[in-house]
Amino acid sequence: MREISIVGAGMTKFAKMPERDVIDLGREACIKAIKSSGVPRKDIQIAYCGTARTGQLLNRECGVGQTILLDIGISGIPVTSVGNFCASGSSALREAYLAIASGMYDVALAIGVEKLSVRKGKGLPLTSDGVTLLTALGFSPPAYFAEIATRHMYEFGTTEKQMALVTVKNRGHSRYNPNCQYQTSVTVEEVLASRPIVDPLRMLNCCPTTDGAGAILLCAKDLAWKYTDKPVDIIASSLHFGLYEKNKDMTTFNSDRASGKEAYEMAGLGPKDIDVAEVHDCFSIAEILHYEDLGFCPRGEGGPFVEQGKADIGGEVAINPSGGLLSRGHPLGGTGLAQTTEIFWQLRGEADKRQVPGARVGMTHTMGGFQDSIELADVASSCIHIYRQGW
Amino acid sequence: MREISIVGAGMTKFAKMPERDVIDLGREACIKAIKSSGVPRKDIQIAYCGTARTGQLLNRECGVGQTILLDIGISGIPVTSVGNFCASGSSALREAYLAIASGMYDVALAIGVEKLSVRKGKGLPLTSDGVTLLTALGFSPPAYFAEIATRHMYEFGTTEKQMALVTVKNRGHSRYNPNCQYQTSVTVEEVLASRPIVDPLRMLNCCPTTDGAGAILLCAKDLAWKYTDKPVDIIASSLHFGLYEKNKDMTTFNSDRASGKEAYEMAGLGPKDIDVAEVHDCFSIAEILHYEDLGFCPRGEGGPFVEQGKADIGGEVAINPSGGLLSRGHPLGGTGLAQTTEIFWQLRGEADKRQVPGARVGMTHTMGGFQDSIELADVASSCIHIYRQGW
User: Fold this and answer.
1) Which pLDDT score, from 0 to 100, does residue B56 have?
2) B330 is catalytic
3) Which of A276, B225, B268, B280 has the greatest number of CB atoms lying within 10 Å of its CB?
4) Residue in A152, A240, A330, A365 annotated catalytic
5) What's the CA gap between B171 and B92, in Å, rounded?
6) Single pTM value for the model
7) Which fold has domain B132-206+235-389?
8) CATH of domain A132-207+235-389
9) Helix/strand/coil for B258
10) B266-273: long-range contacts (C-beta < 8 A, 24 or more apart)?
């Protein structure tokens, strides 16, 4: 397959910004990505825009990408809207990657954006797909992840303290990331004393509601030298959706495992080779499951893994040096390309005080899902990319 | 680039079916496509689902494709939602095409589906993107195409009778297509006597509101022999979005021209080589513009082109032998893959009494757009595919 490099990346600050719309957010991310890349607008041949539920909110199911591009002076190229729940931004990157890999295009722009601070329906769940029956009955994402946490505690002895330590680690990183919604550290005690959401999850175990956008410029690797001395290569891209039937093992995501396996095979690498990873810590327990499903530690050992500092900057693999979703917030379609932007900066040594020393290989992982009220089952899509310094 | 073939296609009947949901419609189309192909479910490696506004209606922004696949017993593969206004289904086909072209996948399924017969907001316009300001002011698609018709009549002497003849031709074809919402012929007099919508457009100049789905199975050409003796090759795929600023020439779509040019170049063919085409006749005047923009006749001569029978089966190029959107109806995301299904049947000689004799090369053309209330401009995406008998 054709080799592909990232030559520019940009993101807005993630925050509640009720006065800004998705077009404004996407424009800022695109302009930053373009400025960081040296790619002239005229070189951009195709674009994808990932959103999970912006359509429902803003009555623009498909036009977000086109409108953003018009605003920055680009028209005439193919622009396609992409959706995949919370993995919508990552899926936009993946389609851009496939478009270049096909040989039909050389330079592509991927955008991911979402606005959650202003909602049409007050009290609607923040899931990317507020599917009717189960969520109407109260089975929202916090309830789902609380069940997972309870089972993980029962099966493996994982503790509330260990879950709290995920938040403590990520919020610790956030102090050095001006793009995060929260930029202050918290203690284990503060996490455990925060208000209950669904037992055993407390407020600080859950990612906040946020607005934001990210954008990535990528091109065929043999052209990357035109734009930058420090391209970041995408060496794997995988996506799988998994079905989680009732009575299944709740403490593992088969979509994570399938996507992880494919990505490692494609990259010719294993978990030990990853220096830095941005993973989908929508809830602290989710990050613990991802350690296990992505092979950073054995099944059931995610709790001790974070407790022993192995997920710290300077540990075995630096997980969420950006602060993760728990600090940055999670604007659904906006998240994936903020993760990729962080890895782009990390591998180029541009991550300032949160820099992972010597980071050469990075990973992003987003997971999006919904509860299928027809099948009475849970569906999740895991999208993984692996990146390497390309110079 | 890797060569790609269609090995199976299927569609539901298009009709108002308020009792059926998008999952049910999509499932039927997929099962028909799979049955027509001989592709075992386990061979399908990736899927795309195109919808324009189903999310807003059914509270399922992203999960339509995954739920359809679960219903037909497929999980674990990558599934991505794709949107591009009325060209959403065609864009799903295009992403499937690019995914195989990349070399990462060999067999892909594209789904396009929409349900318009039941709407959340009574009286909302049927555009794929009910953008706020202009449509709230009454500038709906019929108003837009009425302006175009008026200008085309002024510039080129196009007549109401010529526009009516587009409907007469397409409704004539529909008599032999059991998948159409309307399956009866109409006369010029009936079109001209039908109730006014926006002058000069009358009811029978406008496509009806419909529910429906289509599905296409495609694979690398070198594998097609495993599944069928009569693969249909995709020899071009193009997509462009164009901006139509105020005071521009209203009688041509630059997105059509750009996509047409690219598709012809990619196929190494010209308009004269197309035996049969399904084009986006959302309004009769639209089909006349497409004749011109796609090069079937010179600028301004679309009216005489249809009047002289050149767009008939047996004419220079058979346009919309299926009956087109004017007969089949237009369920936004469902349209593109119904067009491709028709061309698949036509090139395989399976189109029954509406068969275009000797059809070897076919084209599909869908156009989707919206009015951008920020730029106060019109935006359209034109998606074109060219197909050839692959045996």
Assistant:
1) 42
2) yes
3) B280
4) A330
5) 28
6) 0.95
7) Peroxisomal Thiolase; Chain A, domain 1 (3.40.47)
8) 3.40.47.10
9) helix
10) B266/B235, B266/B236, B266/B237, B266/B238, B266/B386, B267/B235, B267/B236, B267/B386, B267/B388, B268/B235, B269/B235, B269/B236, B269/B361, B269/B386, B270/B295, B271/B295, B271/B296, B271/B317, B273/B361
- Of B49, B86, B207, B297, catalytic: B86
User: Does an H or E element contain A161, and which?
Assistant: helix A160-174
pLDDT score at B18: 86
Q: What is the pLDDT of residues A326-362, one digit of tens each?
A: 999 999 999 999 999 999 999 999 999 999 999 999 9
- φ and ψ of B151, to 5 deg: -70, -40
Residue B39: pLDDT band by 50, 70, 90 thresholds? very high
Q: Compute the distance between CA of residue A263 and CA of residue A273 in angstroms, rounded to an integer.
A: 12
Bridge-partner residues for A213, per DSSP?
Answer: A113
CATH architecture for segment(s) B4-121+210-234: 3-Layer(aba) Sandwich (3.40)
Residues A274-322 have pLDDT tens digits of: 999 999 999 999 999 999 999 999 999 999 999 999 999 999 999 999 9
| Amino acid, res. A265 | E
B35 touches chain A (CB under 8 A): no
Q: Which residues of A touch B239 (CB under 8 A)?
A: 78, 80
Quote the minimal CA–CA distance from A309 to chain B in Å. Answer: 33
The residue ranges of DSSP E strands in A23-127, in sequence order, are 46-50, 79-83, 107-115
Q: Would you list the DSSP string of B58-83?
A: HT-SS-HHHHHHHHTT--SS-EEEEE
Q: Where are the domains of chain A?
A: 4-121+210-233, 132-207+235-389
Domains B4-121+210-234 and B132-206+235-389 in one fold: yes
d(CA B121, CA B272): 45
Measured between CA atoms, the residue of chain A closest to residue B237 is A104
DSSP B12: P
User: SS3 string of A270-317?
Assistant: CHHHCCEEECCCCEHHHHHHHHHHCCCCCCCCHHHHHHCCCCCCCCCC
Q: What whole-number distance in Å separates Cα of residue A144 and Cα of residue A139? A: 7
Question: Cβ B372–A63 below 8 Å, yes or no?
Answer: yes
Closest B-chain CA to A125: B59
Domain spanning A4-121+210-233 has what CATH number? Answer: 3.40.47.10
For residue range A53-105, list pLDDT tens digits in order.
Answer: 754 444 455 688 988 998 899 988 999 999 888 999 999 999 999 999 999 99
Cis ω for the linkage preceding A200 (within 30 of 0) = yes
Cα gap A22→B319, rounded to integer Å: 40
Please enumerate in sequence order all residues whose Cβ is within 8 A of that of A121, keeping only pairs 6 or more positions apart, or say none. Answer: none
Give contacts of B255 with chain A, Cβ < 8 Å: 76
Report the residue of chain B nearest A93, measured CA to CA: B80
d(CA A162, CA A319): 15
Task: Determine which of B62, B134, B375 to mutate to test the interface with A (most A C-beta atoms within 10 Å).
Answer: B62
Maximum C-alpha span of chain A? 57
Q: What are phi and psi for residue A325, nearest 5 degrees?
A: -65, -30
